[in-house]
Write a structure and sequence with these properties.
Largest sheet: 5 strands, parallel
CATH class of the largest domain: Alpha Beta
Shape: globular
Strand order of the largest sheet: 4-1-12-13-14
Radius of gyration: 18 Å
Number of domains: 2
Keywords: Hydrolase
InterPro entries: HAD-like_sf, HAD_sf, TPP-like
Strand content: 25-35%
Distance between the termini: 15 Å
Organism: Streptomyces azureus
CATH architecture of the largest domain: 3-Layer(aba) Sandwich
Protein name: Hydrolase
GO molecular function, one term: hydrolase activity
Structural class: alpha/beta
Order of helices and strands: EEEHEHEEEHHEEHEEHEHEHEH
Number of strands: 14
Length: 272
C-alpha cells in the first residue's frame, strides 16, 4: 500500500514573500516558482527544487494537501505534480475529492461541532467586541466553521491573545496565532480526523505529516512520523514529541528540506 503524506501548506510547503526568509546573499538565493496568484498578483512561492520534489512525492505516495484555508482559498493554489485526489480544507471541515467537498464528511463534522462546542456566532461576537480596532484589520468567518482576525502584528497585544485562549478553552475552542492571523477554531475540528478518514479510504499503511503551527500539532501526533520547520508557532514554543523531527531550516528552504524528508520516508526503500 502507498504511504499517505498529509502536509500543511502555508509556511510549511508554500511561502508568501514576507515568509521566504532569504537570508543568504542575493546571488545564492534559490530560484522560486510562484504557485498562487490572487487578484492578479503573485502571492505564494516554493523553490524550483521543492517543486520537483513535490512532483516526485506525488508519484510515490498519496499526497494530501492539508490546510486551514477555506475551499476557495485552497483552490487558487496551483501546486506542481499530479493533481491530488484528496485534500483537507478548513482545518478538517472539508475533505475534497477531486476538488469537490464530500457532503457526508462535512455533515459528520458539523454535527460533532454542534454537540461539543459553543456556537460560532458566540465566538464571532466576542471577537468583534473584544478585539482592539487599533490592531485589527479584518474579521473573517471561514466556511461557517471557525473565525479569524487579520491583525497588525507589531501593534498586537499578545497578552490579549493569551486571554482569548483561556476564554475559548472554556467553550471548547482553541486559539492559534499564525503570522498576521489569529484563529479561533473548535477543538473537534481537526486535520488529524480528516487524515485518518483518508487513510481508511486509501488503505495507506504509513502516514507522514508536516506542519508549523499549533493547528498542525494534532496532525503531527496522529501520523506515524512528523516534521516541523525551524519557524512557526511550534518552533517558537519548542514543541516536540516522540516521532516528530524538528528541522533547523527556516523559511522557504525549510519547505525544500521537509519535502526531501517526506520523499525519503515514503519511498520504496521504507520496506528495507
Amino acid at each position: 500500500m502507498p504511504a499517505l503524506v498529509a502536509s500543511d501548506l502555508d509556511r510549511t510547503l508554500i511561502y508568501s514573500a514576507a515568509a521566504l526568509a532569504l537570508t543568504m546573499p542575493d546571488v545564492r538565493a534559490p530560484r522560486l516558482l510562484c504557485v498562487e496568484v490572487h487578484e492578479s498578483r503573485p502571492l505564494s512561492y516554493m523553490t524550483e527544487t521543492a517543486a520537483q520534489l513535490l512532483t516526485d512525492l506525488g508519484d510515490t505516495a498519496v499526497f494530501v494537501p492539508t490546510t486551514t484555508r477555506t475551499r476557495k482559498q485552497f483552490l487558487r493554489i496551483n501546486l506542481p505534480g499530479p493533481a491530488p485526489t484528496y485534500a483537507i480544507c478548513a482545518n478538517g471541515g472539508h475533505i475534497l475529492v477531486d476538488g469537490v467537498s464530500d457532503p457526508d464528511w462535512h455533515a459528520q463534522v458539523t454535527a460533532r461541532l454542534a454537540e461539543r462546542c459553543a456556537p460560532l456566532a458566540e465566538v464571532q461576537e466576542h471577537l468583534l467586541r473584544a478585539a482592539d480596532p487599533v490592531w485589527v484589520r479584518k474579521h473573517r468567518v471561514a466556511d461557517d466553521l471557525f473565525a479569524y482576525l487579520v491583525v497588525e502584528r507589531e501593534l498586537l497585544d499578545e497578552d490579549w491573545v493569551k486571554e482569548l485562549a483561556v476564554w475559548a478553552e472554556n467553550r471548547g475552542w482553541t486559539v492559534s496565532l499564525q503570522g498576521r492571523k489569529i484563529y479561533a477554531v473548535p477543538k473537534p475540528l481537526t486535520k488529524s480526523a480528516a487524515m485518518r478518514e483518508i487513510a481508511r479510504r486509501t488503505g495507506a499503511d504509513l502516514t507522514l505529516a508536516a506542519g508549523d503551527s499549533l493547528l498542525d500539532a494534532d496532525l503531527l501526533l496522529a501520523a506515524d512520523q512528523g516534521w516541523r520547520p525551524g519557524h512557526g508557532e511550534l518552533a517558537d514554543t519548542g514543541w516536540t514529541a516522540p516521532g516528530i523531527r524538528a528541522l533547523p531550516e527556516r523559511g522557504v528552504l525549510a519547505g525544500e528540506r521537509i519535502l526531501r524528508e517526506l520523499l525519503a520516508a515514503a519511498g520504496p526503500g521504507r520496506f528495507a
